[in-house]
Amino acid sequence: MKRRDFLQQTAVATSLVGLGGLGLQSFKEPTKKITILHTNDVHSHIDPFSPQDGMHPNKGGVARRASLIEAIKKENPNTLLFDAGDIFQGTPYFNYYGGELEFKLMSMLQYDAATLGNHDFDNGIEGLYAQLPHAKFDFLSANYDFKNTIMDTHTKPYKVFVKDGIKIGVFGLGIELHGLVEKNLYKETVFLDPVETTQDMTRILKEKEKCDLIICLSHLGYHYGKSSKISDLELAKSTKNIDLIIGGHTHTFLKKPTVTKNIEGKNMLVNQVGCYGINLGRIDFYFDSFNNKSADGTSIIV
Amino acid sequence: MNPKHLFFVLTVLVFFSCNQTKHLYKIEGKQISITDSLPSNSEIDSFIKPYHDHLNQSLDSVLSYSAGTYTKEDSPFNTAIGNFMADAIYEQSNPIFKKRTGKDIDFVMLNHGSIRSILSKGNITIRTAYELMPFENTVVVAAIKGDQIKELLKYLTVSSKAHPISKLKVTVDKDFNIVSAAVQGQPIDYNETYYVLTNNYLYNGGDHMTFFQPNDTVYSLDYKVRNALLDYFIKTDTIRAAIDDRYMQIE
Q1: pTM of the prediction?
Q2: With the C-alpha atoms ordered A150, A153, A156, A161, is the resulting torsion angle positive or negative?
Q3: How many interface pairs between A and B have CB atoms less than 8 angstroms apart?
Q4: What ipTM does the predicted assembly reach?
Q5: Which of A122, A227, A248, B125 has the highest CB neighbour number within 10 Å of its CB?
Q6: Which distant-in-sequence residues (6+ apart) come within 8 Å of A213 by Cβ?
Q7: Nearest residue on chain B to A16, judged by CA atoms?
């Protein structure tokens, strides 16, 4: 893998680190590591692809994903597991069991949260609601207003996880359903502007919840070429304080996570791992407690 | 830097350190491929097994028999498999439409791309219907007339693909100009409203079919295309599909 380092360090930061190193050894705490694992657009792919498959022979499979996640959690217990939507639809497992097996397996794999994709409405909003008892993880959606639907109170805009003393704020964003899903399926779900929603979310997570890390689970799609349609890359450059956008919808296979700049010119990551559970994304965040907030030097290695 | 400044800096550092300000100093990102080199979690495998076995047993249950092997490439203007699909969906949908509206569906217009697999000679199972139509598309009937019917015919003739049609008969010359166009045996009257069956994907402009909207009325039959095929297979002992003259070119 080609390694690239992105270093942003000011002279001030360097001098502070130097001074601190001399005088404040006793305050120094060990490094903390938070591991974020993620999938998107699994689309009811439970069994691995067959060896004869024309596109993804021998790839994927929930039971293999389970053992991989287990091994990573053994290596670092401070691990969170997320999904960026389109859990449903794509194999007869969905048509026969309505998403029950997908949610039960994600619960067994100990997913921490997921956001909703357009296909998660394929059996109607009632079909989604009916499967909720099988999901032992939260659905995060900040820009779907479910007030006048059966899903009201069954999703949260965001959730704060605390791992090893690090506060991780996670919020969810869905794609505009009009034109993608029939109205009689999504009913009175109201789509709210993703950029405005993100501005609210990041303010709450940064200022009120005092999160150390902010992650967006997005089903907006990676990018739409020359079109100005809202996407993960557009959202990234229009907002601030997000460290990682975990994307979905466009089934985008990236060679490596994308490093991009937010509205303040600060580096951040956008990642998406294709579809059908054939890849698992892994992002490790390393923290030390010994620095000044102005010393904003983070190296990103992808 | 004078001593006063140094004191300030140290104070700030002590403040942040003692309040455990966490500083993100490194991020590493990668993607891990799920391959057969990973062990399979046996607990998960055994949890899936009853669902898997029931599903496959059901998918393999035989509904009908195909007298031949039919592909969407077997003829340039209309194909046996396309004709079968369009006719079968019409036959299943028209009674529902008639019951709800008192009217008949005039003709069917689908797209070549929506035939997702071949129909092989031999047993037809539930799996066959999923292979032919893996999507959740539903049957829609749009009431359109005049210019939109003209556009529909133009689409059919310029795309040079064997789009599945039923109850519509179109003949073109060697330059693809329309020689005749008839619905249920009657020449098309462009002042008349026609009830055209399609699926919700095409109705919404899929495959560049822009002629279904706007319209006088649209009816969603709440009937999946795949279920129409399944119901047709269940009631039909043997499927005998054939190429015919519904869309043809004359010299």
Answers
A1: 0.81
A2: negative
A3: 190
A4: 0.88
A5: A248
A6: A34, A166, A167, A168, A169, A243, A244, A285, B24
A7: B9
